[in-house]
Amino acid sequence: QVKIWNLTTRQCIRTIQAHEGFVRGMCARFCGTSFFTVGDDKTVKQWKMESPEHGEEEEPIHTILGKTVYTGIDHHWKEAVFATCGQQVDIWDEQRTSPMCSLTWGFDSISSVKFNPIETYLLGSCASDRNIVLYDMRKSTPLKKVILNMRTNTLCWNPMEAFVFTAANEDYNLYTFDMRFLESPVTVHMDHVSAVLDVDYSPTGKEFVSASFDKSVRIFPVDKGHSREVYHTKRMQHVITVKWTSDNKYILCGSDEMNIRLWKANASEKLGVLAPREKAAMNYNQKLKEKFQYHPKIRRIAQHRHLPKSIFCQIKEQRIMREARRRKELNRRKHSKPGSVPIVSERKKHVVAVVK
C-alpha cells in the first residue's frame, strides 16, 4: 500500500493498493502533479497526486511491466525522465514502455539510485558489492566507482554543491565525498553505533540527517565529523528512512514499529507566530551563544545530550576498541623497521579502491 498524509491535520487522506508484494521505492515528479512507485511485482506505476473524483476508480496513469524486481526509483529534476535500479540501472522516458538505456558495472543488486539536483545528467548508485558507482546520462556509460570496506546502503547529493554527496554505510559511519577526488572522503562522520540506513540533505545544503539501525536519528553539519543533534524515543525501533522537508523546518522518519514521526530540525525553535520582541530576543540569545561557544561550560551545555543506556554503553565500548587499535598500531610501528608500517589517515582507511 501507499498512503498519502496531510501533515497539518496528521490525517491519512488516501490509501492506494499499489502493488502485489512490497512497495520498494517511491518518488515524486519534479512538477509535483504525480508520483511513481516500484514494487516486488516487477512493475513501475505512475499515480496522480490529487485524489480521484467522486465515483472515479483509483487507477494508475501508466503501468510499465519490467523484467526484474526493482529496488529503487528516482526522478530527473527537470525532464520527463526517471531511473530505476535492481539488477542494473535503467533510464526511462515517461512516454515509453522500454528503457532508453541500461547501465551496469558488476553483477550485484543495486539498492538505490539518485539523480544529482544541480548537474542533472549525473546519477549515483549503491550496490551490495560495496560499490558506489557514478553514471553520466549523456555518455550512457558508468563514469567511475569507489569501493569501500563495507556496503553502502544509500547516498544523497548535496543540493547546493554540485559534486558533493554523502553515503550511509554499514560500518556505522557516513562519508562525504567530492566526486572529482574519490581517493579519500572529504569528511568521515562518526557517531552512530550501528549501520546507517538512510541519509537526506537539508535544502540549504549545510546539514544532513541520518537514520540508523541503532534506533536514533542524528543531524550532522556537512563539515563536522560529529552530530550536533540526536533524536530518539523509548518506543522508536530501527529507523529505516528519513526525509528533510523543503521548508527546512522539519524532519520526517519512518521506523520498524510502523510509525511516522515528525521532528523539528532545530529542537529548541519555537513554532508558530513570533512577536517582534520575541524574535529580537531569540536572535540576541543566538548571538550570545555564538560569541561564548568556546567557553568550557557553555560548550558543555551546548553539546550535552541524554542518550539511551544501550547507545551510551556502545559508544563507550567503541571508544575503548578504537583506543586499543590505535595503541596496537603505535606499538607495531615502534618495534618495526622504520617506514615498514605506514601512517594511514582515518579518511583513507575506509576506501579500498577507485576504478575509472
TrEMBL record:
Residue stretches spanning the membrane: none
* Location of the protein in the cell: Nucleus, Nucleolus
Q: Which UniProt keywords apply?
A: Nucleus, Repeat, Ribonucleoprotein, rRNA processing, WD repeat
Q: InterPro entries given for it?
A: Sof1 (IPR007287), WD40/YVTN_repeat-like_dom_sf (IPR015943), WD40_repeat_dom_sf (IPR036322), WD40_rpt (IPR001680), WD_repeat_DCAF13/WDSOF1 (IPR051733)
Residue spans of the WD repeats? 189-230, 232-273
Residues covered by the Sof1-like protein domain: 265-351
Where's it mainly located?
nucleus
GO biological process terms held by the UniProt record: maturation of SSU-rRNA from tricistronic rRNA transcript (SSU-rRNA, 5.8S rRNA, LSU-rRNA)
Q: Which GO terms describe its cellular component?
A: small-subunit processome
- Show which residues constitute the signal peptide: none
Similarity remark: Belongs to the WD repeat DCAF13/WDSOF1 family.
Give the protein's recorded name.
Answer: DDB1-and CUL4-associated factor 13
